[in-house]
Amino acid sequence: MFRNHLKKIYHLALKVLHWFTPFYYSVFPLDRWRSHRKIEIGCGSIRRKGWLTLDYRPGPDVIWDLTRPLPFKDNSFEEIYSSHVLEHFTYPQLIFLFKELHRILMPSGKMSICVPDASIYIRAYNERNSKDLLRHKPAIASDRPMDFLNYIFYMGGEHKFMFDHDNLEFHLISAGFKNYRIREFDIELDGKDREYESLYAECSK
Known about the structure:
This protein is α/β, with parallel strands linked by helices. The protein has a domain at 30-117 and 163-204: 3-Layer(aba) Sandwich (Rossmann fold), CATH 3.40.50. The protein has five helices and seven strands. Helix 3 runs antiparallel to helix 4 (145-154). It is globular and about 50 Å long. The mean pLDDT is 90.
């Protein structure tokens, strides 16, 4: 109960912070980071060397709510990266975000994506075997097969939209991206701790 109260207070503080940030960046324009040609969205508190980092929470270069228009000019970045971020948005929010990411990506620029692969959990449901997939304890409801799906599709209320390669490609192409391709795990970009459940893709503008 106490933990839930702290979580509510934390999210209220974030809402207040995000009410203020657009005013802050209007006074201190983000053009001062124009030297960066790469941006990571949803980076958490970790800053990646050589990249402009952006997250909802304090810690990165830019604190921003990704449901709002991004505070960058058109064609600002040659590369965009996101890891385990896109699944946290509802469908309308996701389509809006895809269009914003397409807008700020330079022509012929690359976007690299890592998201949970829902098809892995569907196979686990069909085979009645979670195969050590349920690792985030707060999201585990039980060891029953249907709860393998509840785990990944809801993640304790955090996940809102899930992917396999087919629908990820469809929604990216619909937002204007092209040249969708499946990529391999990249040790320079991707977290090793999530390789077991992730799909990796690239597309361009």
